[in-house]
Amino acid sequence: MTLTLAMPSWGQVLARILELRIDVSLSPGEVERELDTLHDRIRQPGDKLHDMPAVPTALPGVRLRYREADGEYYVYVEDTRYGRIAGYTVFNRLIEVSRRTDRLVRAPHTKLGPAYQRCGLATSIYGWALDGGLCLISGARQSAGANALWGTLARRHTRGYVDLRDKSMTYLGESVSETVQADLHTRMILLGQGWTLSSFADATGMR
Questions:
Q1: Strands of 105-112's sheet, edge to edge?
Q2: Angle 179-183-189 (CA atoms, 0-180°, nearest 5)?
Q3: Which of 93, 127, 140, 190 is 20 to 30 A from 1 in CA distance terms?
Q4: How far is 54 from 122, CA to CA, in rounded Å?
Q5: Taking the CB of residue 40, how many other CB atoms lie within 10 A of it?
């Protein structure tokens, strides 16, 4: 799979005020320290994070660094104006899905420094992955902000709900009740460019 990036202008990014998913178990200070450590590693010759390829972007003062490890994708947001890492997104594999499904879907998780939240960066990164043909699946729990983010992405990409258990997926429809949505077996999916529900079902065995 070759991922290509289509990014909005910086002004459009700043105009977006979505809540971005961030690990709420960490305090803002802890997040900043983690991002500082990542920046130090990226600058350190010999570190596996050093000299990563840059993802093309139209954002002034923002550079995206990209790497793949064990089938998971990492995108680091570098603020070149201030020489720091603004945050990163990891597109994780899920042990809950079958091998057939694992080839096609990843669960994205974004962590951003406090100064870079609500700027639409996660929207752009997720859109990059979707435009490259990767399909996304949510985790067992999703914050209100993450839910809103996925709703925005659904304007351009097919969204649906699935019941995931015993490594099998059953399609539940484009919308579900709040009770069903709260069930830990219920996940949201977003289909990448070129996929339809029919082709996705054929490829993954989704019922």
A1: 54-55, 62-69, 72-79, 84-92, 105-112, 135-137, 186-190, 159-165, 168-173
A2: 105
A3: 140
A4: 17
A5: 12
pLDDT band at 20 (very low <50, low <70, confident <90, very high): very low
Q: pLDDT digit string (tens) for 31-57?
A: 889 998 898 898 899 999 998 998 777
Cα gap 132→71, rounded to integer Å: 15
CA distance 64 to 144: 26
Six-digit token string for 31: 């997040």
Kind of pairing, strands 186-190 and 135-137?
Answer: antiparallel
Please give the Cα distance from 13 to 61 (Å, whole number). Answer: 13
Give the side-chain half-sphere CA count within 13 A for 81. 5
From CA 73, how far away is CA 55, in angstroms rounded? 12
Q: Which residue has the higher pLDDT, 6 or 120?
A: 120
What distance in Å separates the CA atoms of residue 166 and residue 95, rounded to the nearest whole number?
10
User: What CATH class has 10-204?
Assistant: alpha beta
CA distance 120 to 6: 13
10 Å Cβ neighbour count for 144? Answer: 8
- Give the model's confidence band at 26: pLDDT under 50 very low, under 70 low, under 90 confident, else very high: low
**Mean pLDDT, residues 131-135:** 94
